[in-house]
Amino acid sequence: MSLTNQLIAAVFTVLLGLVLGTVYLLSDSSRDTLVRQLESHAEDGATHLGLYLAPYMQQSDSATIATAVNAIFDSGFYQQIEVTGQDGSVLYSKSYNPEAAVNAPDWFISMMRITPPAMSRAIAYQWQQVGEIHVRSRAGYAYERLWAGVRDTMLLFSVLALVSALLLTLLLRFIMRPLHGVEHQAMALARREYIEQPDLPRTRELRRVVIAMNLMVKQVQHMFEEQNRNIEALRSTAYRDSLTGLNNRRALLAQIQEHLEYRQDFGPASLLLFHLRDLQQVNRDLGEDAANHLIKACASMIEDLGQSTGLSITGRLGGADLVLLARQRNFDDWQRRLQPGLMQINTLYEQLSKKDATPSILCIGIASGHDHCSPEQLMSQARLAVNEAEAGHDAVVHYHARQSQHTWSEQWQSHVANAINNEQIFLQHQILKSTKQEAIHAEVFARILNLDNEPCSAGEFISVALDLGLMERIDRAIVRQALNYLSHNPGAPALSLNLANQTLEHPPFVPWLLEQLSASSHRGRLNIEINETAILAHQESILSLRRSVQQLGVSFGVDNFGTHPNGFSYLYALRPDYLKIDGSLIRQLDHSEEDRFFVSSLISVAHSLEIKAYAEHVERPMQQQLLEEMQIDGTQGYLYGAPTPLP
């Protein structure tokens, strides 16, 4: 019961006690008054009858006596009237039927005992006693009059009580309104939302409570903001280059390896290595500050280029070397995209050095590889291309310009398109396990058969699907197959589906997805995962999707969490059910103290928001042990086996 209702109940309990006490006292007083009134009536009745009946009593005129007694008896005040003669004989007697109902409740009669008064009067006529009149008042009359007064009083009280309850409720709710605001603040604080009450109540005690709550909200907000700043500072120290803000060497190589060897979401990729010619001479010519400004301009140009190409990774290897990893493009396309940036950097160098930028101050080496090309191979090929550019006059050199550049054949493109359009897609899954080794859910991966009728990796066909704009068709097929599988396998673990960025950019998909989920009785065993990059790029639409699936009872997760430079402040609004820490942060967990501290901080942030934290790409028992010590909620990876076909 709320405090307002308790106060209202307490007030009315006191009022009810006062009213009942008052009614009892008034009833007791009224009872005495009625008893005296009955005595007076009995006395008056005996006196009047005596004066009137004296001559008739001497004559023993029973008819006249009966008429007179009946006339006065009908007033209802009397229980019995009896007229006796001089010798004690009964001349006439009239009694009220004792079985007649009294118009009052039995409990009231038993509580308010009334002893009816009785009066006797000796009658004389012509100085001679002729008899007596005995009159007993009727108690039922007193009960009826007394109950009528109590009933009317209680009815009036009930009406007044209802009116008073309404007014008192409105008044108390107005007075206690600041407490509702405090309650709202407390609930919001539990959700890591910081709300202050700008309007302070006039009541002194409530004013102090609101001021104290506002102060606590500010302090808690400051504490969590400080925690986030510390984690962001750690991220910057451990994974960001201090000069350019890009990934540092360690984070860059880890993410390139994660994408090329595990996710394979680039397919055939192009690695671009940007190198400033003779950085030492540039420092001598421009000074350290101007040289740093030139490097930062290069980093900004590379970041813009990466955003324009879609999925990409940028970073600084150190010194004058910057890297961009993106989906493979032909050499002419890269030259067209790189030309404005080259002109911009050369112009800036000319302005700073007052020298002609010929040859170009920036050398770019491009290495393009197939989907199984290792990061080390791409990096070494890009380095060879940079060395060639630095030795010659071409600003951009493609390592594969002298070799057969890998491109998708028309036959393979047609095969992939037909497989996707005909939904010739099969699913693989990998189990995510709790610390008790119980299955939490299974992440689903889409696969197709290659031209040799054998399963091919995601990297072999995802890039083609991206080029052909078929990712939405793949995700639709996955949703349908997953729901069908769940309907035929009620005992199987829940399935987790990772929606592609391109799919989320297609407006009809989300309404279709919600329609499919609404129509399925097994939707509660389906999870929807979105890549962190996609969430940050479409925060409003993803937030709307999150609310919609939450209403349907579908869990929502964040995939590849913890590597985006914009941080994780979006978690406070999104409130996913779980998040999966990116595999690049897990790979060296058992060898890097910085990775362990950062991952532990991410888990703490998730738990503080009541979000489950999972780790992906766990391969070694030591990684599992360290994660369990950090209070991880679940792990997934080759430690438990490679993805297997969904039965």
From TrEMBL:
Entry's Gene Ontology BP terms: signal transduction
InterPro entries given in the database record: Cyclic-di-GMP_PDE-like (IPR050706), EAL_dom (IPR001633), EAL_sf (IPR035919), GGDEF_dom (IPR000160), HAMP_dom (IPR003660), LapD_MoxY_N (IPR032244), LapD_MoxY_peri_C (IPR042461), Nucleotide_cyclase (IPR029787)
Positions of transmembrane segments: 6-26, 155-176
GO CC annotation, single: membrane
GO molecular function: cyclic-guanylate-specific phosphodiesterase activity
Residue ranges annotated for the EAL domain, each copy included: 409-647
Domain of life of the native organism: Bacteria
Region forming the signal peptide: none
Domain annotation HAMP: ranges: 173-225
Record keywords, A-Z: Membrane, Transmembrane, Transmembrane helix
Positions of the GGDEF domain: 267-401
PANTHER family: CYCLIC DI-GMP PHOSPHODIESTERASE PDEB, CYCLIC DI-GMP PHOSPHODIESTERASE PDEF
Protein name, entry field: Diguanylate cyclase (GGDEF) domain-containing protein
